[in-house]
Amino acid sequence: MRIGTCTRICLILLVGLLSCAAWGQGSGNITGQVTDASGAAIVGATITVTEVGTGQTRTVTSGRDGFYTMITIKPSSYVLTADMTGFKKFVQMGVVLQASQSLSIDIPLIVGSTSESVSVNAEAVQVDTTTPTLKEVVDSTRMVEIPLNGRNAASLTTLVAGAVISPSNNADQGNAKTFPAAVTVSVNGARENQTGYYLDGAPNIDIISNVNQPFPFPDALQEFSVQTSNYAAEYGQDAGGVVSIVTKSGTNQFHGSAFEFVRNRVFNTANYFGYVNGVKTVDPLKRNQFGGTFGGPIRKDKTFIF
Question: How far apart are CA 113 and CA 5, in angstroms?
């Protein structure tokens, strides 16, 4: 009985830690102010965001100054609504929250019946007006479509302004100790071992050399953000950049993919200068990478698997 009790306690603690990690770094915030036609603040309005893919919702109410804030929202596409007695319902479509983003959406309510609604179909402005953070998001399209040697998504951090490949003197521990997928990046002149990496909120670094541990393969990644300056105090352990990696999630619809990435000399042409002993040669590398993804609901609108 004692062993069984200890096992249950360990499982509960593990689930708790995983839950904390899932809502850690990489999530975003939505904030704004609810006002009437005259610009006066509206107190007590109910603001709800509904994730398009899963149907999950988060709800808050506006404060006495009309402002509302939703924190630790996972990056995804949302529909935002606002309800208040005596005003028409406000519906904002096409709200896209990216990794580590603070998105500002002000809500103007119009006097009328709550049975009426005002729908805004244009995408919300994606400009961060609430924090001084400089960052860029690398989305799944770029990860999958851009030619990527070895399909190592970590190398795409160099797409961000201020991030460059740097000498590995202070990070590389040799072939026997450093992960083959490690990428030594200097952000805004900081040392190559001063970039923080987080995978769905949990640290994703090699504790010896402080370089990145391998990213999941690109088809399993939703996106990752690279913060290069003025990021929040929660990321205070590193002087360089902060990379927040977000994996894909299941939705209310079953979906999946299968792939093979091929690199073979039979598909290559020879380099003009590619001669060995007078014979034209081509790249001899032969590589076949197979894989797939699958996601869907375990319980609609509540629990998902990917």
Answer: 56
How is 116-140 classified by DSSP, letter by letter? -EEEE-SPPP----S---EEEEEEH
Q: 276 CB contacts (<8 Å, ≥6 apart)?
A: none
Distances in Å between the alpha carbon of 7 and those of 3, 14, 117, 138? 6, 10, 52, 40
**Would you state the structure tokens that stand for residue 278, as one six-digit string?**
């007078």
* CB 226, CB 101: distance < 8 Å: no
pTM above 0.85, yes or no: no
Judged by phi (left if over 0) then psi (alpha if -120 to 50, else beta), residue 155 lies in alpha
The type of residue at 197 is Y
The single residue listed with the structure tokens 């690109």 is: 218
| Residue-wise pLDDT tens digits, 174-215 | 666 666 778 888 999 988 888 999 999 899 988 888 888 889
C-beta neighbour count of 291 within 10 angstroms: 14
For strands 287-299 and 303-305, give the pairing. Answer: antiparallel
Answer whether 93's CB lies under 8 Å from 78's CB. Answer: no
CA distance 236 to 255: 38
